[in-house]
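Ticket #4471: structure export looks truncated?
Reporter: QA, pipeline team
Priority: medium

Steps to reproduce: submit the single chain below to the structure queue and open the exported record.
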Amino acid sequence: MNKEHGKALSWLFELRGVGDYGMMLHVTKEEAERAIALAENFVVAAQELIGPNYVR
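Actual output as written to the record:
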């Protein structure tokens, strides 16, 4: 994984805190859409690392 994946995970973790405990703060639609895109990119990168022979 590259450095950008690490930054994305860090931001996603912060965003989760806002969503779970933000009280007066809320996740915007734009932030949610960005979060979904970043998470999908992370999953693709993880699948590439694991490879096609990974068995659950």
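Status: closed, not a bug. The export was complete when the record was re-opened. Leaving a note from the reviewer for reference: The chain is about 75% helix and 0% strand.
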